[in-house]
Specification:
Structural class: alpha+beta
Largest sheet: 6 strands, antiparallel
Strand content: 15-25%
Radius of gyration: 28 Å
Enzyme class: hydrolase
Number of helices: 13
Transmembrane segments: 6-25, 101-125, 384-406, 418-436
Protein name: Zinc metalloprotease
Membrane topology: Multi-pass membrane protein
Oligomer: single chain
CATH superfamily of the domain at 131-215: PDZ domain
Subcellular location: Membrane
Helix content: 40-55%
């Protein structure tokens, strides 16, 4: 129920802001707006303004602003002929194309602006940040075949400087590495009592390809999966794993390494520390068909803290974060178009209304800041996706208007009709695919 409420609030705000963008620009250019609708289908709430009907419709997955003279399907009103509807100065059809483009662009623009505002509000309210960002740069895990492994970095190494500049914590290290994207840097590490200088080749697009290191995560248990072997054995959140089958472990990644080698449902002996007491627990792993390996149902504990920012700093961070998310979305779409992303990868990354509802509920449950941040993230995606040059989307209308400006005449109505059918087919197929993908996730 919480997920449904969170989803309806979020989608209602995003749709309202999007359609308000179209509405306010239409009114600014003197276009008569007949209907302002939040949702599609039959209206469940409706009221009449001075000249516009405002309504909330039954299907909350979109909305629309119906403008007088918007298309060839416009019906004559108040005794006017169809020709008059297209020559009336308050008609959308009578406006110059540059004004029509701005009216179409206003909806996505308002969503992008809203994203910046919501993420800034999230930073002011407070967002969860991992505590390790303020801790020394102690490496907990090295990805196999990664840039870091090739450079010679090993688990439990402590990185103390990048190109001679000291780095006291993970936050400083992350900033330095990001600033050196596409460059070769000298990294000074401490290994035991010795210091070494290693050469690290930073990838040009570090947001897409990491250097392959992770922070040191303590061997402390976080969430215990309900009904899992770990829960049945009596393990609890907050327990610390001291050893597995007699072998000491110092980090979460060592736990993962040991458990990943299990090939049968054979009892595993864990040495556990809880409230100052040390005892042993025997857990029998179960085979997980989806992951295709034996698991016991545990996850790591990540220590976090709520970080709040002032007004100016919050907006500065919001612009930076929205830019990063914009780059990620661009790379995602580019990889789909160029075929660099497989169908399975698309399925793993594509979510529909059910996934959005699930994550919005989780975000609201974890705090207002996280919910505002997630809503801003969805608003940004909604803005950009509506700018895609697909007929029936705002980007499709903008593309048609640009073509008409180049050829200096309107496209034939038949061509616009066929383009609309194509757009509906593409969007419909994408929605069906996303919803079907959501259902499969739920069933799994």
């Amino acid at each position: 129920m919480l997920s449904l409420i969170a989803f309806l609030i979020m989608i209602g705000v995003l749709i309202t802001i999007h359609e308000f963008g179209h509405f306010i620009f239409a009114r600014m250019f003197g276009v008569r707006v007949e209907v302002f609708s939040i949702g599609f289908g039959p209206p469940i709430l409706r009221w009449k303004g001075k000249e516009t009907i405002y309504q909330i419709a039954a299907v909350p997955l979109g909305g629309y602003v119906k403008m007088y003279g918007e298309d060839s399907m416009t019906e004559p009103i108040q005794g006017e002929s169809e020709k008059e509807a297209y020559t009336d100065p308050r008609s959308f059809a009578a406006k110059p194309r540059w004004q029509k483009i701005l009216i179409a662009f206003a909806g996505p623009l308002f969503n992008i602006i809203l994203a910046v505002i919501l993420v800034a509000a999230a930073y002011m309210v407070g967002v969860f940040e991992p505590k390790y960002m303020k801790e020394p740069v102690v490496v907990g895990y090295i990805q196999k075949g990664s840039i870091a492994e090739r450079a010679g970095i090993k688990p439990f190494d402590r990185i103390v400087a990048v190109d001679g500049k000291p780095v006291k914590n993970w936050k400083q290290f992350t900033v330095e590495i990001t600033m050196k994207a596409g460059m070769t840097v000298n990294v000074e590490i401490e290994r035991g009592r010795k210091k070494e200088l290693l050469t690290l080749n930073i990838p040009p697009d570090i947001t897409k390809k990491s250097i392959g290191i992770s922070p040191l995560v303590p061997p402390k248990l976080g969430k215990i999966m309900p009904g899992s072997p770990a829960e049945k054995a009596g393990l609890k959140e907050g327990d610390t794993v001291v050893a597995i089958n007699g072998k000491p472990v110092r980090s979460w990644f060592e736990i993962v390494e040991v458990l990943s080698k299990i090939k049968e449902s054979k009892s595993v002996n864990l040495l556990i520390k809880r409230d100052g007491k040390v005892f042993t627990v025997n857990v029998v792993p179960e085979y997980n068909k989806e992951l295709k390996k034996y698991v016991i149902g545990i996850s790591p504990a990540y220590d976090t803290e709520i970080k709040r920012y002032g007004f100016l700093e919050a907006f500065e961070k919001s612009v930076q974060k929205n830019w990063e998310m914009s780059v990620l979305l661009y790379n995602f779409l580019k990889d789909i178009v160029t075929g660099q992303m497989s169908l399975q990868e698309v399925k793993n990354n594509l979510g529909g209304p059910i996934s959005i509802a699930k994550y919005s509920g989780g975000a609201l449950e974890s705090g207002l800041g996280n919910y505002l941040f997630f809503t801003g993230f969805i608003s940004l995606q909604l803005g950009y996706l509506n700018l895609l040059p697909i007929p029936v989307l705002d980007g499709g209308l903008i593309l048609i208007l640009l073509i008409e400006m180049i050829i200096r005449r309107p496209l034939p109505e038949k061509a616009k009709e066929y383009l609309a059918y194509l757009g509906f087919a593409l969007i419909g197929t994408l929605m069906i695919f996303a919803i079907f993908n959501d259902i499969l996730r739920v069933l799994q």
